[in-house]
Amino acid sequence: MSGDKDTHEFDEYFGTMPWLALPQGHPLIAQLNEMYSISGIPALLLLDKEGVVYNSNGRGFVAKGAKFPWIPPPPQALNNFTETKDGVNDFPSAMLLLDGGVDEAKSKALLDEFKPVAEEFFAGKKVKFFYVPTKDAYSDQIRGLVSLIYILYIYIYS
């Protein structure tokens, strides 16, 4: 899809690209932009065969030369150093917050319990799973957004 302002601009740029595109000004462009909340260009969304977005940051994966199919593995770490936070705003998400003074051994044990659950649910695209490994500005922002003050530890017994 093109975000070019006029046909000449589109034709010039499209002539250098190896893929198909909807022509500049095509009415489907506005519908798709709205349907997938595309607000900037370039954007590359990865969709499954039902048209459900499984990665809203394909552009980031291409830019860093990541190996296709660009599916972020669950769970994804979220912190100030994470380059992409794929899906955190786009999908129902579960987060494991390990930023509240949990020692390293307990954090690893909790994450080891969290991973199989994340992988099982992720396979069905029901929810995205994230974990926050350390206390930083990003973890403070997450806690502020969800009004989380106290830490709740959930132990899973099998």
Report on this structure.
Residues 149-158 have low confidence and may be disordered. The protein has 158 residues and is of the alpha/beta class. The protein is elongated and about 60 Å long. 33% of the residues lie in helices and 11% in strands. The termini are far apart. The longest helix has 20 residues, at 104-123. It has two domains: 7-63, no CATH class; 76-145. Helix 4 links the parallel strand 4 and strand 5.
Distance between the termini: 49 Å
Number of helices: 5
Please tell me the overall pLDDT.
76
Structural class: alpha/beta
Search tags:
single chain, 158 residues, alpha/beta, three-stranded parallel beta sheet, two-stranded antiparallel ribbon, 5 helices, 11% strand, disordered C terminus
Outline:
By secondary structure, this protein is α/β, with parallel strands linked by helices. Helices cover 33% and strands 11% of the residues.
